[in-house]
Each structure stands twice: as C-alpha cells, then as structure tokens.
Amino acid sequence: MTQKLNLSNVFSLEATNLSARRGEDLIFEGVSFRLTSGEALVLTGKNGSGKSTLLRVVAGLLRQERGSVSFTDSHGSIHQRVGEVSHYLGHRNAMKSELTVAENLDFWRRFLGNTHDTPAFSIDDAAEAVGLDGITHLPFGYLSAGQQRRFAFAKLLVAHRPVWILDEPTAALDTSGDSLFAGLIETHRQRGGIVLAATHQPLALSDVRELRMTGFAGVSAGVWG
Ligand SMILES: Nc1ncnc2c1ncn2[C@@H]1O[C@H](COP(=O)(O)OP(=O)(O)OP(=O)(O)O)[C@@H](O)[C@H]1O
C-alpha cells in the first residue's frame, strides 16, 4: 500500500502479554502486538475463539486478566485508556431505533467530539461516504440490516479517532458494501490510522497482518500472529 504519512505524526498501539477471562474460563493468554500508523491487524479464528473478547479488552470495555494495552501519540505521550482514542464498532450498531439517522449521528458527533486536529465528516458527507445519502431523515429502525450497518460505520466518520476497532464490520453487507467499507478503512490507514478488526469474511485490505485466535485449544500454546 502506498502511504503518505507525515513521520512527525506517527503513533502506535501496543498490546503486551494480554490474557483475558470470561466467567471462569481463560480465553487467551500471551497476546502481544504492536501497530504503527497505517497498519492493520485482522483477528481470525473459529466462533468462540476470543476475537470479540480481545477487541473489547483493547477498547477498554473488558478488563484483562494480565498484560497491558497502550497508545503512544505523535508526541511520544503514552495513553493507557485506548478507548479514548478509538472507535469501537461492535456486533451491535449502537444506534437508537426511534431516532432518525441524522439524530443518531448528530448524537455521536457531539458525544465523541474530536480529539485530534483532523477534520471529521459532516453528517451528510458521512451518509454519502457509506452510499446512503438522502435517507438520513428516516428513523434508524426503519432501515434494512445492511443499511443500519452502513450508518453504524458512518459513526466512525463523524468524529475522528486514530484507532478503529471493528468487530465483524461487514456483517449484513452486500458486495458493494464490502468494497465500500474496505475503501473507507484503506483511506483511514492512508491518513495514518490504525485498524484492529475481527472477521470471518476476508476484508479486501492490503498489507494486513493476521492474528489467528485459537481459543481454548490454544491457551496452553499461546496465540500467535
Ligand atoms: N459473559 C461471558 N461469560 C462467560 N463466558 C463468556 C462471556 N462472553 C463470552 N464468553 C465466552 O468467551 C468465549 C469467547 O467469546 P468471543 O465472543 O470473544 O468469541 P469470538 O471469537 O468473537 O466468536 P464469534 O466468532 O462467534 O463472534 C466464548 O467461549 C464465549 O462463550
């Protein structure tokens, strides 16, 4: 991938020796990776292997059993609260069904604000970017599953975050949606953004690293990239 990065604006996301437990069970252990501006890491593995758990730990939504996650900004300052510099797109779309698309996106734009200098998209531009301009006046609950997923992704565009944490981002999407999301992710990377994604379907991304989660069977042997 051709990247035009300003090297004074390079940041990184680092996970060191992470392990996590759900209930009584250790789901993974010894997970380490380091991603710098423009890089993407894709988590693969069978159902229940711990992909969502790892994403939620990195986003700060679940506490790890051991290990650490940190973000180093372009000034070299280290942030332990990675969630504050990240967008997290989970299985659920995090939108209110009874509010219109525009109201939902406006809520997120105000709630998230902008933590960096990079300008974010307007709501109309974000809707256009996900291929759905002209219907932002509709209640979110009226939309098809694929349309809802597209607007959930538009949330990532209305406020800038350097790290995108994506759990099955293309679930429910048609073929054009797959390539549209891939394009938006690539643009984010070209602007220096970092992407951590879990997926069963291959994402059409260039130069991605893969971390194959092995779930319970892999706990004793660790998890490798
Ligand atoms: N709240 C919970 N309490 C106990 N176990 C849980 C809990 N949430 C998830 N688990 C278990 O943790 C394991 C990992 O789940 P996780 O959702 O991380 O897997 P995944 O790789 O993302 O799966 P999928 O591909 O199906 O989305 C599973 O065995 C699941 O049953």
From TrEMBL:
Pfam families from the UniProt entry: ABC_tran
Keywords: ATP-binding, Cytochrome c-type biogenesis, Membrane, Nucleotide-binding, Translocase, Transport
GO molecular function, one term: ATP hydrolysis activity
GO biological process terms, semicolon-separated: cytochrome complex assembly
Domain ABC transporter residues, every copy: 13-221
Family classification: Belongs to the ABC transporter superfamily.
Record-linked PANTHER family: ABC TRANSPORTER I FAMILY MEMBER 1 (PTHR43499)
UniProt protein name: Heme ABC exporter ATP-binding protein CcmA
UniProt organism field: Rhizobium grahamii
